[in-house]
Amino acid sequence: MLSAISCLTARRGPRTLPAMVFFTPQAAFYYMAAASVASALLAVTRKNPVHSMLWVLALFLHVAGIFLLLGAEFLAAVQVIVYAGAILVFYIFVLMLLDLPGEEARPRFGSHWPFAVAAGLSFAALVLLIPDAGGNVGTSAPLVVDTVPDRFAPSVTGINPPDGSVRGQNFPSIRVGFSEEMDEVTLTPANIQLIPKSDPGNPLLPVDIQIRNEGKLVQFTYDELLPDDYQIVINGHTVTDRAGNALGTTNITHSFTVVTAVAGVGHALFGPFALPFEIASLVLLAAIVGAVVLVKGRAAES
Amino acid sequence: MIVSVDVVLALSAVLFGIGVFGFLARRNIILMLISVEIMLNAVNLSLVGFSQHHGDPRGQVLALFVIAVAAAEVGVGLGLIIALNRNKPGAGVEDLNKLKW
Any idea what the CATH number is for the domain that residue B83 is in? Predict the structure, then answer.
């Protein structure tokens, strides 16, 4: 952690004031996390409903900040505009419209509230205690029982990003999936290269290599991918499974395009997710019609 | 990724637990609905965390759809509250016991 921080400050040049060292993205994340938990707690416990709404506003803005830190710029903007802007104003509007006198005089919780505390705590504990199912290589080695010598060549089952796809630069990583458990020492940046089109002589070097699913999936994470066309080249001779069978005799090549982060979300929404996107608009339309029918219904009859 | 996905998931679980508590404990029906919004936000947080962890934009797109469904839910839910309020003023859930056997 300390070395990471010193790396960060060293890369930024002369701004190595001691006070600046503490303002890292990690510190910002933990501040936002603590603030969002605190404002959520205050939101569900305040007696005055308007105060609750204001604490929910604080929660939404802090969650938007977390989205920004996690590389979801577009979602952060949508969070502020749609959640904090539209949805919350709708809530406050209805709250004011109903004009609830004496709301503060009534008990804020039902008499069953200890059970609600238990339910909330046990749900959070349930989610927190679920073991890591990500298939990350841990301490236990996979059990391999070889009764027949493995002479079958492995194959590539999938590369993410897919061939010819477009993706945002906030996802600076590639993943290659294999049909068999691969020899981990052959899954190197030299054997699986990511080549930018503008500078084909210099394949990018990953900052992090993760091998998952007992060696069936490798993920290379890069420092940053600038908007450009990229090519993934997998050397068929040198990438082998654990028995030493090579992928093939030829190189596997694969290309994709990196655009800016918001453009990446747009390409996903209007490309592979075009139909779900249209269905979401239908859902919204049905909800608008439903809300109008619900609110207007009786007035129209009389 | 600036923090591990586990931290994001833990934060999401805590926020979801607070939302569950709020939904079950509050008596005001509007505050029960806003607790649902807190839960939806927690889910969005874990979707974005997974999206970063796996380097896959689909998680963010799914979070966008969750926001769209949340907007639809708010429209219908608050419409229901206004229709209920017309029949029986007030926003306490204890008063809505007409269907109780």
Answer: 1.10.287.3510
Give the distance from residue B68's alpha carbon to the nearest chain A alpha carbon, in angstroms: 7
Distance CA A117, CA A106 (A): 20
- Asked whether residue B98 is assigned to any structural domain, the reply reads no
Is residue B85 within 8 Å of B91, Cβ to Cβ? yes
A6 within a domain of the structure (yes/no): yes
> What tens digit of pLDDT does each residue of A244-267 get?
888 888 888 888 888 888 888 888
Q: Are A50 and B29 in contact (CB under 8 A)?
A: no
ipTM: 0.92
- Asked if residue A39 has pLDDT above 60, the reply is yes
Residue with tokens 């830190």: A69
Give the whole-angstrom CA distance, residue B51 versus residue B49.
5
Find the length of chain B: 101
Q: Is B55 part of any domain? A: yes
Global confidence as pTM: 0.79
> Is the pLDDT assigned to residue A139 strictly greater than 50?
no
Of B30, B65, B20, B24, the residue nearest B44 (C-alpha)? B65
Contacts of A63 in chain B (CB under 8 A): 41, 44-45
Could you count the other beta carbons within 10 Å of the beta carbon of residue A200?
Answer: 9
Q: Which of B55, B74, B75 sits opposite A221 (nearest CB)?
A: B55
- CATH code for the domain in which residue A38 is found: 1.20.120.1200
Assess whether the previous peptide bond of A25 is cis (omega < 30° from 0): no
Q: Chain A within 8 Å of B44 (Cβ-Cβ)?
A: yes
